[in-house]
Design brief:
3-stranded parallel sheet, 3 helices, about 45% helix
Amino acid sequence: MLMLTPLVARDAAEQAAHLAQRGLTVVVVDCLPPDVVVAGSDDDAELSTAWRIRRLERELEVAHLQQRGVPVIPWNGPGSLDVVLRQIARRPAPRTVVR
């Protein structure tokens, strides 16, 4: 499963972790450009600080996903996903338990 998200809201990371925990193969494509600036943050110190804090929290969420085996790949245009998709294609199919 490919999840395309800027990972700005915590919900996306939580959902990706939940799906991976349930045994699905999840690849998160990070669509947030690294140079994004929040409009008005140049003039508003509180807004600028809040955005910096959110970016730091986001980095932790990405690290936690990766520790759980969920690849988080930044979108850098065509070819960005080639390596991770090849690696996933080589994995053995997950065993499904029927209850």
